[in-house]
Structure formats: C-alpha cells, structure tokens
C-alpha cells in the first residue's frame, strides 16, 4: 500500500469519534468481519488506528478505497434521515397517541415536517397544523407560529432527541418569509454591512424588525408633559421593507436618521434577532 | 349643535424638532416644503372634540351597525341638481337598468357576470349634524335571490352612501335646486363604484372626486379621536409612516397602548371641549421625540400615511373605517369638512 494512502486513511480514521468507529467501518465494508473482530476497540485510539492500518495494508487498500471511507465519514457525520424521521414520529406518538406526522425531504438537506395535533382523547386537528423545517446539516429548525402553545415543549423535545442534540433554544427571530430568516441565521447576507455601496443580498426579502418599548416618556423640549407619570409608555414599533437592512442604512445619508445609526437598527445581523424588548433600566 | 368658531387667518406656529437643526439635508428641505404646501390650508385652528350629538340619539344603532367596521373609500361630491327624496323608487329602477346595460356592454370582457341584481335607494334617518343638513341616503346593490319568494333579500354586493354633516358653509352657497351631500362613501367593487358614479354624474350633473387625506389632517384626526372619551378601547392606537428611501420604501409603524396615548393627550390638552392646532402639534411632537430618543430617526421628515384608533382609522388614500358608533357623527363631520374644502 502506498505511503500516502496509508497516511490518508490514518488521518481519516483519527477524525472519527470512537463511538462511531465500528458503524463507519461496517458501512465502509472494506475490512472483513473477521478482520474487525481481531481489533480491540477498547485500546487507546492510536493503537486501534495502527491496527486498522495494518489490516488495510493486508488487504491492499487503494486510494479509491480510502476516498470511499472519507465519503462515508462525511455522510454518517451529517445525518441519518430515516432514523430522524422514525425517532421524531415515535416521540410524538408516544406522548400524544393522536398525532399526524408527515415528512417531505427537499434539496439543501431540509426536511419539512407537518404535524397535526390531537390529544389522548381527541383526533388530530388537520386544520391547524404546525410546520417545521429542519436543516439537518445545521443546528437550526424553523417552526410556523400556528401552534397550540401546550405542544411547544413536546415539539422541542422531539426535535432535540431525534436530531441527537442536547438542547433546544428559541431564538428571537420572526418573519413571514423563511428565506429572510435563513439569510440571517445562515449568514447569507452581505458581510460588508457598513459601506453604502454594498449590493443588496437576494435573500434579505421582507425581513421585519419589531421592537417592544416600555420606557418612560422624557419631557425634553416639552416641559412638563407626563412628568408625574410613573408608568412607561407601552409601544410596539415595526420596521418593514422589501430590503430592510438596505433601507435602514440609507436613512442617515438621507438626513432622516442621525448618523451613526442607533444600535437598535444595526443589530439584526449581529444579534441574529429581529424582535427586541426595551425597558427602562 | 353649534357650528365652528370663525377661522383665524393663519394656523398658529408650532415648535418642531427640525426647527432646531443647524443644517438640513436637501431631502429634509424638500420634505419640509412639501409639507408646508399641503398644510397651507386655511382650516380652522380649533375644532370641537366629537361628542354624542343629540340628533344622533334618534339614530337606531342597529340600523347603522352595518356602517361600522367596514372600509369605506371616500369621495367628495358636488351638489346634486334637481335630486328629490320622493323619487327614490324611480332612481332605483333607473340605476338598475343602467347597471345591467353597462355590464352587458362589457360582456366580452367579463364573462359569466351575474345580472341578477337589485338596486335599492333608501334614506338614512338621523345621519346629520345640524337640522339644516339634508337627509343622508344609501344605495345598495344586492344580488337577487334565486328563490321565488319576493321578500328574500340577496347578498349585498356594493354599498354607497351620501351624507352631509354640518355642511353649513356649502349649504349657504347653493340655490334650492341643489341638494348638498358632499361626502360619499363606497364599499364594494371599484367597477361598481365607477358605474354608479357615472349614472349620478349624468343624472344630477354632479362630479365625484377621490378624497385623499394628507398628513396634516391625519394628525388632526389622530389627536381628535384620541381625545374622545371611551369606556373601553377596542384597538391599539397606531401610526404608520412611509419613508422614501432607496432602494425601496420603508414602513414604520408606531403602536401605542390606547390608555398611554390618552394619558399623553390629557397631558397636552388645555382647552376643555376643543382641540387646537398647538395641541395637535404638541401631541405629535411628543410621539416624534419619544421615537427619536430611541431610534435617532426624525419621523417628522417622513410621510404619515395612516392613523388608527379605537374610534376610527384613516388612510391617506382616502380610506376610512369607523369602529365606534358613539362618535360616528363626529368622524363624519371632519370628513364632510374635508370634502367641502375639496369642492370649493
């Protein structure tokens, strides 16, 4: 076996976590059952790897065999769709008995999930389903807001367990358009945010910015207006535009906003949120 | 009900944030001049806060319930020549025939149009401000029922009503041959509005004109409707501004809890029973300055396009929705004033 091939296989195997090693080697199907049985997987990793390289040499592994191992590592590393779907469905069905779960896989490694919720005693309501889009290559899932609140924890649990993550955290990003959320979350927007000449990123369509203000009114020029009032003004401000980030940027040059722009307007890409609550300190 | 105080010659000055700028950008200067032009209307600098009018108590709330919670498109209408309230049945018949004829003309374009319609003219009793105001009337297009029973009413396809609330300034200028109902409100397909408008124009030698509402008047409406006493609020108070910026426009919506809006108004308000120009300006400036404090954006340099309160909501394109029966007459009074101004 070529030196370079041996080295390549060694580095590839070293990258595989120990708990997945046997799975991957079986999937590779290059080393025989008998050969694998001779390996003591409880040793230190270096010793295991050395043993495996030795076995590969015995079988005269070629560069294409090495390449195949590499691909399998990538594949297993990412995702087992069938297992995810089964696991997800089982978790919901065990908890609710009455639930309709459907899947649709799309390109970009996204799986669309439709869930119609029922209870232990009632049939699933097909008219108020929840939609979830899970991007298996990423730790992100997007859910539609048409969801009965009591099912949120269960949905979170099912997603976490089925996708083999540890925890699920709700982000403060909302939009009517999936593309715009993806743009922010997957950082698919133009990074050179501060320059005025940057081209408009395609996927920024129709993102909104919502800010919930509960702050006291400060008189300023107006003397004693609301001076005695302890309670804050309860306000909700919404900015919306087909190209929100670009529109906000153009406010200062137009003289409509003071430069530099308020941090509330520039923080969407950094904080990856588009819903904020501001309170008096 | 009393009529307004005599208008003064110029609106009183107000303090606006942009007065404090040292240098204004070309856009700001342009926006300011546009605003000055559109606000240079010799309208009275004070108006009465809408109250429950005595006359309104004669109006059956159920009869006018259908006017609420609907979006109406506004038009101003010049006085109708030789219109008679005793000919309403005749008008129904004539308009009906006209609509059918017009729709048949357009048959090539609108295939499958349903010609089973019925037109009804009726008066809206009590829908006036002063005794002198002419009676308001209503026109409805209903789809005729398929069933043989005569009394069965079909679905309402289109509604339009004509009214005049405190139209003294117009009434004084016309002869007896004319009926002054300067405010027209329509709900339903634009194509029907056009056909009916054409018939009225031909029959009574009048002229409809879409009634836009500029930012100046929207601000007044917001202040007046916030000033109205409410037992409970059914909607949040909301303002919508459109910002002309490149590459495409930006909409800024500012919603404030109605109780907080009322508290702000009460703090600004000085003259009992009335709203003055200064108070409107101060109310708006407070909102602008609260917004500026957080966002460093000068809302006064943008275009106010919509205001919404628990009393009513209005859009600059001349669309109105009235939510509160109690202040129906008050809202219509302001709109009548705008319509009359557009006609004169």
UniProtKB/TrEMBL annotation, chain A:
Pfam families: CENP-N (PF05238)
PANTHER family: CENTROMERE PROTEIN N
Subcellular location: Chromosome, Centromere; Nucleus
A GO BP entry: chromosome segregation
Keywords in alphabetical order: Centromere, Chromosome, Nucleus
Primary subcellular site in the record, as a coarse category: nucleus
Highest taxon listed in the record's lineage: Eukaryota
Gene Ontology CC: chromosome, centromeric region; nucleus
InterPro entries to which the protein is assigned, alphabetical: CENP-NAC/CAD_complex, Chl4/mis15/CENP-N
Protein name: Centromere protein N
Similarity annotation: Belongs to the CENP-N/CHL4 family.
TrEMBL record, chain B:
Record field: transmembrane: none
InterPro entries reported for this sequence: CENP-L (IPR025204)
Origin superkingdom: Eukaryota
Chain intervals with Polar residues compositional bias: 1-15
Gene Ontology, cellular component aspect: chromosome, centromeric region; nucleus
UniProt main location, coarse: nucleus
Region (Disordered): 1-20
Keyword list, A-Z: Centromere, Chromosome, Nucleus
Localisation: Chromosome, Centromere; Nucleus
Assigned protein family: Belongs to the CENP-L/IML3 family.
Protein name: Centromere protein L
Organism, scientific name: Gorilla gorilla gorilla (Western lowland gorilla)
